[in-house]
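User:
Hi there, any thoughts?
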Amino acid sequence: MYEVDDVVKAKQFLNMYGLPFEENSYKIIVKGELADYISCFQKHFIAIHKCYVLHQSLEAEFEKLYMT
């Protein structure tokens, strides 16, 4: 599980996969393969969820962008 707290990084990550972004939502938790939908269930929280483990290809991309 990864968290992104930076609003710019959050926007980049969502835009990369053609997903909607809300200005008030800046924290992303990624748990598995990219979901078909995004559930916004807290004021500053976007959850991308469907599986329990991050898909390897997505994990690699995420780490390249945000863990270096």
